[in-house]
Write a structure and sequence with these properties.
This protein has a domain of about 90 residues: Ribosomal Protein L3, Chain: B, domain 2, CATH 3.30.1430.10. It has about 180 residues and is mainly beta. The longest helix is centred in the last third of the chain and has 7 residues. Helix content is about 10%, strand content about 35%.
Length: about 180
């Protein structure tokens, strides 16, 4: 607020203090959508707000005061850059939560990604891969997104963890 020479009423409400700040740019996904398809696919994607537009439409709902008139509403433009899958991580679940069981990373990554993302170099394969896969409850893909590829000015890359639905894997292993 600073020092004032003359007394005057304050500007702005104190009802919104302290101001909350987000810890990160990524949204926290609490629930993933249900999907029963047989093909493996990502359940989410990364998008960035690029701007907003005005949408002009004609109201076709009957029994409304604006029936047949033009309506102007706002719309948000979201840009989705291409996704680069860096690796796959499998999690087992117990009463303490999720625990990482295995990590598989891509061998050849682009230079700008490999400089920022340090890979875990564990070359020991599991002794019994079928037995270790039976404990897996969730599989996540580790992805990298470059906003510059979508025409945005943001330079830094974002690394995200997105859930994979792999129904065909569970059917083949008879889990």
């Amino acid at each position: 607020m600073g020092h004032r020479r003359h007394s005057q009423p304050r500007r702005g409400s104190l009802a919104y203090l302290p101001r909350g700040r987000a810890k990160s740019m990524e949204a926290r996904i609490r629930t993933w959508p249900e999907d029963n398809s047989d093909e493996p696919k990502l359940l989410a994607h990364a998008g960035f707000k690029a701007g907003c537009v005005q949408i002009v439409s004609i109201d076709d709902r009957e029994k409304t005061p604006n029936h047949g008139k033009q309506l102007v509403s706002l719309g948000t433009v979201i840009v989705t850059p291409p996704v680069l899958i860096i690796g796959v991580r499998g999690y087992s679940k117990d009463h303490n939560g999720l625990h990482a069981e295995f990590d598989f990373y891509a061998d050849d990554l682009p230079k700008h990604i490999s400089r920022l993302f340090k890979l875990k170099t564990k070359k020991n394969p599991p002794e019994n891969p079928i037995k270790s896969l039976k404990n897996i409850k969730e599989i996540y893909a580790i992805i990298a997104v470059t906003p510059r590829n979508a025409g945005l000015e943001q330079k830094n890359h974002m690394f995200l963890r997105l859930q994979l639905r792999v129904a065909i894997l569970k059917n083949n292993l008879n889990l």
